[in-house]
Amino acid sequence: MAPQRSGVLKTDENGSMTTIAEPAETGQGATAAAPLRWHNRFAALGPAFFTRLSPQPLPDPYWVGRSRSMARELGLDEEWMESRQALKAFSGNGVLPGSDPLASVYSGHQFGHWAGQLGDGRALLLGEVVTPDAGTVELQLKGSGLTPYSRMGDGRAVLRSSIREFLCSEAMHALGVPSSRALCVTGSDAPVYREQVETAAVVTRVAPSFIRFGHFEHFSHSGQTGQLKTLADFAIDAFYPQCRHAPNPFAALLETLSERTAQMVARWQAVGFCHGVMNTDNMSILGLTIDYGPFQFLDGFDPDHICNHSDPQGRYAYNRQPGIAYWNLFALGQALLPLIGEPDDAMAALEPFKVLYPQAYDAQMRAKLGLPDARPGDRELIADLLKLLAGGRVDYTIFWRRLSMAAAFETGNLAWEPVRDLFADRATFDAWRERFAARLQPFSLAACATSMRAVNPVYVLRNHLGEQAIRQAQAGDFSEVQKLLDLLQSPFTEVAGCESYAAFPPDWASSIQISCSS
Ligand code: AMP
Ligand code: MG
Description:
Layout: E1 8-11, E2 17-20, E3 37-38, E4 50-52, E5 62-66, H1 68-74, H2 78-81, H3 84-89, E6 102-104, E7 107-110, E8 113-117, E9 123-130, E10 136-142, E11 157-158, H4 159-175, E12 181-193, E13 197-207, H5 213-221, H6 225-239, H7 249-271, E14 273-274, E15 296-297, H8 321-340, H9 343-350, H10 352-369, H11 378-391, H12 396-407, H13 417-420, H14 426-440, H15 445-453, H16 463-474, H17 479-488
Antiparallel strand pairs: 1-2, 3-9, 4-6, 5-12, 7-8, 9-10, 10-13, 11-13, 12-13, 14-15
Bound molecules: adenosine monophosphate and magnesium ion.
């Protein structure tokens, strides 16, 4: 067991951590220790899996953004989230009692090539906490300084990318896309050197587990079969206990991960989300979207869209995401082979993806169209619509929302004009709409409109919206981060006065370039 720390740690002048007494330092919200119950299961796996270390402090930290809903789910009250203890803990300037920080080691395939050993190069797992509803989640700091796995990096994250990760994690969760969550972002004026000088920030991320495909690849490729089995047993016992009863529990684990991943990517495609860096070290074994970097929500619909400026070949283009997910699962299957035994069993465990992904995608798209049942011909109806959208680079989010709004008015009404206006070739759209109306029979479009509005969001984190919040934050005003968070946490509810957040992107949006540098 890890030694329990009894107070918040602080750096002395030499930069090393020392323990200070609590609650004298907690300031205004002198509520003593955070109401968190720690239960650090990953830390119990043993030293082959991680290196224990404390975060590196940042000078004069400040709050950039906080997710109240995430705090509530963790049982952290608002007063405590205002306290200096919270600010210290989530900027890496102290360690909460019961937390047992560590950086984990993993490997991975990056852009299709084996990258060898990687690891938490700038993240620290603070530990696992028990939530008020008796679940467990891990808390992780990202940008908290050097670790043994930092390689050439500085262990830091910049304000811009931290705001993007914070907002997108919470936005995806609210959209119903499985994702890691984010509790808060803290910042500091400490300089961080990228293409230009920027400032440092730390995101506190939350997920039941941050284990990646790359963790399994690490132990498999380095021939550490004992550790590979320890990790797989842990994953099964902690997250997939039903696999234990299968004839081959490790093949069952792979099959379950194929299902989870298929569901996740189907949701990405339906909501128009491009991840941007689907390396195997960025793939969660819980089927959660993790490691937000150069992601993007589509503006105009372009199936070939590449959101990552560092991916000129388009390996991770929007329409390639399902195929890449399968590629990554194949790499995971390869890694699990020493446990699974027969290659045929591993292949058989991957096979369901090929059926489940299209099924999951069809279900998502039918929901977007408000179709209450599945019928032959649906796939063509959807494919033909997407062709229309692609042909005119029609704004993806706006199209679906306008369709949902117009649907309430059935046909022949002026309400349809906003949808038709999106198409240069209105006649072709009208023809599609007639097919759509005929397909719906005997259901009425109006009856489906409510469910459509519940799945087709008004607000998504478009690049330019993030960019506006970032620019203001870089000038010291964090109000836009919080405002955007509030909208994105209720993405299906129109808010009066916030029309611009649901509008077409401005011309300058297309010149925003987001790369892996963050
Ligand atoms: P990413 O592309 O962000 O998923 O990062 C790939 C690997 O590089 C991960 O192991 C990260 O921890 C590591 N990494 C990325 N940026 C940094 C940085 N600034 N300092 C240290 N490690 C980093
Ligand atoms: Mg990563």
